Amino acid sequence: MGSTQGMSCFAGDPNFCPECGNVLPLPGMQDIVCCPRCSFSIPVTEFAGREILSTVVFNPEQSTMALQKDEDSELKGPVIDRRCSRCNKEGMIYHTRQMRSADEGQTVFFTCLHCRYQEKEDS
């Protein structure tokens, strides 16, 4: 386990681990705060008197309405004869993406035309 003594690679904000730069968890009921990445520890008393602020930002109503319009839009793409595992009806559209390394196959995403359930298949 690390300690607060000695040289550190990172300096600055005390909410970050001085050894690896990872965000330190909020102090809890224990007497020390341990970095989840490198196990550096710091006494919880180092956080005494610190004020932690957080802000919640809500999306503007216009952006959520645009998402609703997109959901209502007609599904586009090639249709195949594949049975949906949720509603058991035939007819799904698909598109492919390269989600893994280039030497591995593509990932195929299927969307049901009837219930809009989405499935994926790694090829």
TrEMBL record:
Q: Which of this chain's residues are annotated to bind Zn(2+) 2?
A: 84, 87, 112, 115
Q: What does this protein do?
A: Core component of RNA polymerase I (Pol I), a DNA-dependent RNA polymerase which synthesizes ribosomal RNA precursors using the four ribonucleoside triphosphates as substrates. Can mediate Pol I proofreading of the nascent RNA transcript. Anchors into the Pol I active site to monitor transcription fidelity and cleave mis-incorporated 5'-ribonucleotides.
- In this chain, Zn(2+) 1 is annotated as bound at 17, 20, 35, 38
Report the principal subcellular site: nucleus
One GO cellular component this record assigns the protein to is:
nucleoplasm
From which organism does this entry originate?
Answer: Periophthalmus magnuspinnatus
Q: Which domain of life is it from?
A: Eukaryota
Query: Has UniProt tagged this entry with the keyword Iron-sulfur?
Result: no
Q: Gene3D superfamilies, per this entry?
A: 2.20.25.10
Q: Which UniProt keywords apply?
A: DNA-directed RNA polymerase, Metal-binding, Nucleus, Transcription, Zinc, Zinc-finger
A family per Pfam: Zn_ribbon_TFIIS
| Record's subcellular location | Nucleus, Nucleolus
Q: Quote the protein name from its UniProt record.
A: DNA-directed RNA polymerase subunit
The chain positions of domain TFIIS-type read: 80-120
Q: Where are the zinc fingers (C4-type)?
A: 17-38
UniProt family annotation:
Belongs to the archaeal rpoM/eukaryotic RPA12/RPB9/RPC11 RNA polymerase family.
Q: Which GO terms describe its biological process?
A: termination of RNA polymerase I transcription
As one GO molecular function, the record gives: DNA-directed RNA polymerase activity
